Predict the 3D structure of the following.
Amino acid sequence: MGTFFLIITKYLKMTSLNILIKCKHMSFDKILKPQNNYDLIRIGRDNDGGYLVEKKSLENAQSLISLGISDDWSFEDDFLKKNKNVSIKCFDNVLDEKFLLKKIIIQFFFLFYNRNFRVLKEYISIYFSFLRTKKKIQFIKKKISYNDLNKIFSQERNNIFLKIDIEGGEYRILDFLLLNQKKIIGLVIEFHDCDLHREKILKFLGSFNLTLVHIHGNNFAEKDLNNDITVLELTFSKNPIQISDINILPNKLDMPNNFEKNEVILNFKKQ
């Protein structure tokens, strides 16, 4: 009889805990939801690496500064196709010809084990794409610091468009963005570990004067204890063109970052 009551007690505790966890599920703060529907276009490749930007801010940008590239510059290449007068500088702490050649060599040796020619061909294609692209886009192998950004911004004119995907390093430069926001016409930024940096994100949104025009959840990211996605992609624009006051998310131009998983559905608090 004692064992029976012990089992029942454990069951009730587990059930209560599950109910408590479900009740604690929280939607994202309302400030993270764009208030209207804007004139957006998709820039970059399908799925991961592509972002929605406001069309006018792209067309009026005088320079594009990209922080974090790895082996995908489809966004920058597409940006240049739609704004042929823009100057583009890409900063990444690993990307150069040696980095891409090393990937090719590694995949070549993997052929003895997995016979996967597709991945090898893909990296060879990426390597030659890099050689072509660097003739029109400047690639700089460097991990950007606060002081580096100061120097870069001092050399650039107004109407700077920024793309930032630096795996958590974004929080170190939010103060810089606030101090220099008058020179920024558009911003695409990925916020990582949102559950750990919620207050920093909300503080930034409360002080940044550009309009939040889009938000998208990255389904490559893990979910937190509240079952919320932990990586968010946000797009901002200066004086964006509004299409309507009804904003439906995900946008019809959105694509899941990981095509093998469902798109992320974001819920927002009512207040």
Q: What stands out?
A: Helices lie at 2-23, 55-60, 74-82, 97-114, 117-133, 146-155, 174-179, 198-207. The domain at 29-93+142-244 is CATH 3.40.50 (Rossmann fold). Residues 135 and 261 are 36 Å apart (CA to CA).
